[in-house]
Design a protein that fits this description.
Length: about 350
């Protein structure tokens, strides 16, 4: 028998040429030989076919699968923070590959689900280890630490975007009264909420990430006062972001604002002393780094091919889904009489 191996394209391809086989193996021994040579058990092969069928179903009707995933999560989300969950996650899900959507559907933790959708965690981590979704837990820990020894965040700068200007007309505009907190959305959803800012901005995300880099300005006050800011749905801090006085027409301060992860709103602002107008220009955001360096390999089986003597046939492994890269393949050959059988040729797909 001669093998000719194709270049690294999806799926993994072999060309088998059969000649008369003088020695035979009993049919009963073939499954054992197959498992030993291909590195896949019968259960793993069956699971591989299930994976490929599910990914194909998602590709056929991605919108229906997204809606199914959204509906599965809604009962487990804290309704104080995730009333408009659909608006937050829909852009992420539409941008995700079917492979990522399938991995996300198997995750039981809200943050893990988002990280799979956005490539922070390899989808194969869940596809390889789960047959059905993990038990989902209520997402109430929307306040996350901006940094730590376990998770390093990456800053994405954007062209400064004015998302709030209370001097303009809108449902959330007008001067801030002392002691009256006001919530603001720093994502693209904020454009439609009457915050007095821009109508569009280049690079502003649609999802509420862990933190925001912003320049905050106060103006229009007539006496001494100050401004405090804090994540949506948390308590007012004891420190101020800005202190102002009437001889200064306007005062600005830039800094990092902790957000409310995946929430409808991002931050609260509350003033003390004199009423004041508020201007917020977002200059970037912070999120967990994309985890390509810790990629996961998924083995996808192809179909069995039988080759008669003096004939040849091309056999393939399972097709690597969009968003993964073919890195290698494997093949099992079994002989019975004068027939050569290629059992479950597999592709190794990396993401």
């Amino acid at each position: 028998m001669t093998r000719l191996i194709s270049s690294l394209t999806a799926p993994w391809v072999f060309l088998l040429i059969a000649s008369t086989i003088s020695s035979a193996q009993s049919p009963a021994s073939l499954p054992d030989v197959q498992a030993a040579k291909s590195g896949m058990t019968d259960l793993e092969i069956e699971r591989s076919y299930e994976i490929q069928a599910t990914v194909a179903r998602i590709e056929k009707d991605k919108g229906a699968y997204i809606e199914e995933l959204i509906q599965n999560w809604i009962p487990y989300l804290d309704n104080r923070a995730y009333t408009n969950f659909r608006d937050e996650v829909m852009p992420l899900m539409q941008a995700a590959t079917p492979w990522q959507l399938y991995g996300a559907s198997l995750a039981g933790d809200f943050r893990a689900m988002i990280h799979v959708l956005t490539g922070k965690v390899a989808a194969g981590k869940y596809v390889n280890s789960r047959i059905k979704p993990e038990a989902r837990t209520a997402a109430s820990d929307f306040l996350l630490n901006l940094g730590g020894t376990a998770t390093q965040l990456v800053f994405t700068p954007i062209t400064p975007c004015r998302v709030v200007d209370t001097r303009n007309a809108g449902a959330r505009t007008g001067i801030l009264q002392p002691g009256a907190p006001r919530a603001f959305d720093l994502t693209t959803s904020g454009f439609a909420k009457g915050q007095g800012g821009s109508a569009t901005c280049l690079g502003l995300p649609s999802f509420s990430y862990l933190g925001w880099s912003a320049n905050v300005t106060v103006t229009g006050y007539t006496d001494n006062g100050g401004l405090q800011t804090y994540p949506y749905l948390t308590s007012t801090p004891s420190t101020s972001l800005i202190n102002f006085f009437p001889s200064a027409y306007a005062i600005a301060n830039s800094g990092t604002l902790t957000g409310c992860y995946g929430c409808d709103e991002d931050v609260n602002f509350v003033g003390f002393g004199s009423p004041t107008h508020l201007i917020v220009d977002v200059t970037g955001y912070y999120e967990v780094a994309t985890g390509y360096a810790s990629g996961t390999v998924t083995k996808l089986a192809g179909t069995t091919q039988t080759v008669t003597p003096n004939a040849f046939v091309q056999v393939v492994g399972g097709a690597c889904p969009a968003g993964t890269v073919l890195i290698s393949g494997a093949q099992t050959n079994s002989s019975g009489g004068t027939i050569l059988t290629s059992d479950h040729n597999s592709s190794n797909c990396l993401v």
